[in-house]
Amino acid sequence: MKNRVAFIPIRYNFLALAAFVGGAMLVCGTFIGTTTGVALFVQTARGSDSLINQDERENQFDHLSLEIRAKYTSIAVQKYRTAWNRLRDNGGPWENYSVRAPAEYIYALVCSETFLRENPHLRDSFLPNPLPLDRAETLLRLVREMQDVAPDSPTFGNFRWYWRQKTVEDQNAVEFVAFRLLYCWKHRDVLPVECRERLWEILVDAREGLLRRRVRPNYTNISALNFTNLILFGEMMNDPECLEEGLLRMYRFVCWTHQRGIREVASPTYYAVLLEAMQQLERDASNADAKRCARGILDFVALDAAAHFFAPSGRFAGGESRSYNYLHGDPYLRCHLARWGWVPLEDVPSNLALLTAFASDYVPPRELLEKMPAERFVKQDFSLPLNMPPRWRCGATRDSTYTWITPKYSIGSLSSGYGEQDVPLAIDFAHEGGKNRKPRIYFIVDGRGDPCGTKKIASGGGHAKALHLDYRWSAYQNRAIVSAKVEIPIESVARLAGEDAQLASSFVFPTPDGMEELKDGFRLRYGLRGLECRILYQNGGKIAGFKEADPQNHIWVWSFHHGTPNEWRENETPPRLDFVLRVFDWPFGLVKTLDETLAEDLFWREAPCVSPDNRFTLPFLEEPNLETCDRMRPNESYAEILEINDQPVGRACLESAIPQLREFARRSENFEAHVEETLNAEGVCLKWSARDGLYYEFFRENGCVAIHEVARWRVRIPRSGNYYLWAKVRTQDPQHDSAALQLRTSEGATFFDCWAFGVQPEGEWVRFSPRKNKAEPFSLPAQTVEWVLMPREFGAQVEAFILTQDAAFRPDDKELQE
């Protein structure tokens, strides 16, 4: 086999001594540098009104001279000229022509013309020919022809994504089109007069599509585009309804991120969309809250990018969700990193993301990267709320990413699978003496014979994507060691692969300097670094070994074949593979075997668990007890959204820019409702105002608390026993008349995914009754109890609560009448 070398364990004492001395020196230096770097960063985040001082932003990246910006803007516009020529030569739109193409071309023309009007001395050298602004009319006509203009249509105002489609299949189209055209409307003076009326018509009809596109904040990129579009539309078109709704949706997004992090976590593709939306919102909005929130999100994403930035490869390191490039990872986000001066512009193919980055003045401070410790373990949370499907509430781990970065390599993993486009495990090496933009090493579960992710297939909305199998993934990481479990539900395979497809768990990697097959795994060597993977457990299948998947690009795979769906069809247990993987220094890392390393490492030894063949694994790989999913740990709270070497920095970053989040954090340490207490023959009766709880000030309305995010109330119970809970609520329609409830005591927490209030526009007292069933009492101890309301549907308003031991009690009793 080509490039194979033998991996021979080295156990000589003098080498072990050298490794020990060198390692001790490295650990001491790393500890000092790491502690100092993180402490400085946290102090900056918490000790100022803004994480990034405005003065520090000025004149930071002067290497982006006007001439350089003109050069790359010219390249970007030329790309759209080429697309125009294809359109012209083919006599009109073809079936795969996307509505985004003409909208983005107009945007590129307006961006470049605005730039040249600000810098007229560059016009002659900008392009060999004048900018073709006369094409805008034709481009807008194409956009208009793809818009649904039937007033009685449920997708009125939206757009067909592709010319071939007869109806609107992907309702996200209105967000991408409106986002580009709103910028053009702001700078409409550069367009020919005849274009402005058509642009107005498109945007006015798009208004309804924007308002109807109601997505939760966990749909990160679309949610950000939506509230950005509504806010800018409201301001530019003098539309108070759109502005108010856009701000409300923005507050939901900001509070969601403050509680749970970015759901489309570590996605270089969609982080670019998020950056573009927030840059445009901060630059063009007049509303002060919108500007502050946009700046806070920009700072958080920049911090996230810096924490995960692996300088030797210039890449966003670690596992990622929703990847569009499995081999390289980050073509879109890389454009923004180039704008910030983190990677060379020459390494970035100029495209719309770079053009958008040039149109923004946002840059994080140069010292943001300098403060990052050379060795760092980054943990990032992307959890769903507790009222979402139960699999996220059952494991010993949270939805998180773990990334260990050193000057020589990075390794990162997701704790749980995100979807059919994620990269759950990825490694980058610094390639000594070679080009660093090599393909990364990653893991993928494949059933289509496409481990490199280059064969696109049909997906939702008429799109074609390189989807891999939908599988169950669990992993935990301690620095350079990852333990993982993979299960492939057979019922999930049919949509993406045939019944005779070969199911394979594969590691994809560029040609190493050496590779070795093991009885139960493999080893790779890249310069002075090594990678070892060992199978802990499998319930069928066999090792397929090494194969050169792409000789032209020097890409290899090592695979474990699980068999075909037909072979598993009658089994009650799905295909499963447990493995452990580590990165080590070559050759000193082989002084100890992987088994010895796991046996001696305190982290892995504290909670050991053995798999069926007596190999090391972790308790989280075992099946959760589904019967206890709704019983939470006492005082369960949301994890920190971003940690660097165990130092929390994510929430502090957002709070430094957004005062309402800072106030929420200040009040969260110690709060308790003021309770009116009555004691009679029927028992205890307690009443408290909803305003006495912990909630985001964004959502306090008319003396009520609107449940757009988590709200908590702590109440001291004077006597143990059974209690009934009432709430005085206001709801407007059946789409916004329920919430989720969690009850927390010292013994644990109980979750109810629905408290149905019913439509109560004038405000009524409603007794706790999950899903309109018979009223249920709570058995409460004599202690402080916490009640938590979460949005099952957005917007139900709560004014007050009553807790009573009297089953026959009704809140219209005179002593408690409002």
Topology (elements, then pairings):
Layout: H1 13-46, H2 54-57, H3 66-89, H4 100-118, H5 123-126, H6 136-145, H7 173-186, H8 193-212, H9 220-236, H10 240-260, H11 268-284, H12 288-308, E1 309-310, E2 315-316, H13 333-339, H14 352-358, H15 367-370, E3 376-381, H16 391-394, E4 400-405, E5 409-414, E6 425-429, E7 441-446, E8 457-458, E9 464-465, E10 472-478, E11 481-487, E12 503-510, E13 514-518, E14 521-526, E15 529-538, E16 542-550, E17 555-563, H17 565-568, E18 576-585, H18 594-600, H19 602-605, E19 609-610, E20 616-617, E21 631-632, E22 642-644, E23 647-648, H20 650-657, H21 659-667, E24 675-680, E25 683-689, E26 700-701, E27 704-706, E28 711-716, E29 721-730, E30 738-745, E31 748-756, E32 764-767, E33 778-780, E34 784-790, E35 797-804
Antiparallel strand pairs: 1-2, 3-4, 3-22, 4-5, 5-6, 6-7, 7-12, 8-9, 10-11, 11-18, 12-17, 13-14, 14-15, 15-18, 16-17, 19-20, 21-31, 22-23, 24-25, 25-35, 26-27, 27-35, 28-34, 29-32, 29-33, 29-35, 30-31, 30-34
Q: Would you mind describing this structure in some detail?
A:
The structure is a single chain. Helices cover 32% and strands 23% of the residues. The chain has 818 residues and is α+β, with helices and mostly antiparallel strands. The chain has a ten-stranded antiparallel β-sheet. Strands 24, 25, 26, 27, 29, 32, 33 and 35 form an eight-stranded antiparallel β-sheet that branches. A hairpin with a 5-residue loop joins strand 8 and strand 9. Helix 6 runs parallel beside helix 8 (193-212), helix 9 (220-236) runs parallel beside helix 11 and helix 11 (268-284) crosses helix 13. The radius of gyration is 29 Å and the shape is globular.
